[in-house]
């Protein structure tokens, strides 16, 4: 019995000695040459985005309080964002963005005032340790796949929304969970998610959810001239209520180069607000080009065409043309001024809708 006890105790001491020696040895091991451990230092950044403008509405004229026909003109702040972003570790990141915009609700006591609301608030879990760099999962109020992609190519969001967003078919932000994956060797990416489908401006009213997916392919990532060419497909499957669909499909081609950015996309949409109402099918397309110089001057030319109901004759055509100057970059600060004309014609609508024409000077400040 005593001999057995001594053997067990001796074995235990041997194991403990091995563990201590292993721990001591491991503490002396240095990382392999060229290895940089991930930075897990928590960090936080604060920035801002301001869209300001002076706009003259040439058409249609408006009537003032005394009944005079006048040309409406005004100074505006179209958008103002406060961006708070950071990292808890190299795996966990976050962003919170309040959105300051003008209240336009009929009957609201704040009508005409600038109000504060939440645009983005999400946590991001980076999967770079296990998958390709730039792969992540997001949870919360976040960017949607198509609008976020297009705004990354179209630098003139401060003039107005992208086509599908401006016409009310998609939104830039919604509540949900999403997954983003980058293909190897810069061949493209996939962004997909499940969202409420009601955008960031409304609460979820029922059990219906939006499933959205965007896939982008870069066919020539190694070619110096054509690596900016990308082909994209997008689908959003949703419903207003059970069996009443709200679907959007888009195909697009974009091109980015140091001297020009350009895009063409075609959208098809189906809306049925209730099973008791007929389906409304719409389609349209948008094309734009922004030639640029190396000294800050750029041009903007854009054309949008929409048929909001293919069973009716009405068509809406928008032409935007302008000249911009982008000030030299100071760190991460982007500043630009844009002089543009925005003209929208409504064809074959019943009742008739007058042409809308606006001249404006737009300003962007982003840091």
Estimate the mean pLDDT confidence.
90
Strand tally, please? 18
- Global Rg: 27 Å
The backbone outline, from C-alpha atoms, is globular
Spatial order of the strands forming the largest sheet: 1-4-5-6-7-8-9-10-11-12-13-14-15-16-17-18
Series of H and E elements? HEEEEEEEHHEEEEEEEEEEE
Strand fraction band?
over 45%
Helical percentage = 10-25%
Largest sheet: 16 strands, antiparallel, barrel
Unreliable runs, pLDDT <50, ≥5 residues? 1-30
Question: What is the structural class?
Answer: mainly beta
Q: Give the N-to-C terminal Cα separation.
A: 77 Å
Total DSSP helices: 3
List the helices and strands and how they pair.
Blueprint: H1 2-27, E1 43-59, E2 62-63, E3 69-70, E4 73-87, E5 92-102, E6 114-126, E7 136-143, H2 145-153, H3 163-166, E8 173-182, E9 188-195, E10 210-217, E11 229-241, E12 244-256, E13 260-271, E14 280-291, E15 297-307, E16 315-326, E17 334-347, E18 356-366
Antiparallel strand pairs: 1-4, 1-18, 2-3, 4-5, 5-6, 6-7, 7-8, 8-9, 9-10, 10-11, 11-12, 12-13, 13-14, 14-15, 15-16, 16-17, 17-18
């Amino acid at each position: 019995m005593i001999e057995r006890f001594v053997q067990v105790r001796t074995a235990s001491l041997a194991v403990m000695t091995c563990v201590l020696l292993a721990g001591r040895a491991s503490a002396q091991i240095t990382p392999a040459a060229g290895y940089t451990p991930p930075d897990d230092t928590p960090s936080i950044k604060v920035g801002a985005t301001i869209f300001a403008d002076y706009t003259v509405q040439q058409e249609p004229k408006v009537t003032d309080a005394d009944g005079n026909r006048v040309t409406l003109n005004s100074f505006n702040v179209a958008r103002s964002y406060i961006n708070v972003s950071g990292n808890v570790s190299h795996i966990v990141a976050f962003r919170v963005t309040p959105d300051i915009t003008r209240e336009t609700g009929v009957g609201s006591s704040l009508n005409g005032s600038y109000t504060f609301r939440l645009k983005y608030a999400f946590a991001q879990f980076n999967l770079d340790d296990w998958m390709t760099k730039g792969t992540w999962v997001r949870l919360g109020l976040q960017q949607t796949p198509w609008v976020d992609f297009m705004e990354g190519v179209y630098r003139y969001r401060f003039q107005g929304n992208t086509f599908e967003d401006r016409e009310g078919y998609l939104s830039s932000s919604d509540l949900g969970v999403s997954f983003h994956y980058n293909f190897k060797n810069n061949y493209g990416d996939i962004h997909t998610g499940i969202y409420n489908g009601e955008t960031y401006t409304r609460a979820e009213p029922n059990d219906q959810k939006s499933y959205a997916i965007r896939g982008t392919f870069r066919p020539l990532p190694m070619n110096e001239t054509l690596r900016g060419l990308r082909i994209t497909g997008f689908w959003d499957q949703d419903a207003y209520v059970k069996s009443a669909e709200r679907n959007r499909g888009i195909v697009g081609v974009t091109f980015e180069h140091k001297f020009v950015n350009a895009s063409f996309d075609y959208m098809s949409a189906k809306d049925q607000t209730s099973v008791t109402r007929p389906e409304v099918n719409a389609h349209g397309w948008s094309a734009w080009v922004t030639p640029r110089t190396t000294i800050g001057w750029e041009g903007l030319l854009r054309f949008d065409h929409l048929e909001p109901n293919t069973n009716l004759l009405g068509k809406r055509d928008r032409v935007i043309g302008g000249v911009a100057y982008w000030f030299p970059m100071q760190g991460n600060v982007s500043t630009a001024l844009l002089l543009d004309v925005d003209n929208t014609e409504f064809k074959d609508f019943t009742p008739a809708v007058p042409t809308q024409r606006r001249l404006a000077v737009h300003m962007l400040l982003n840091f």
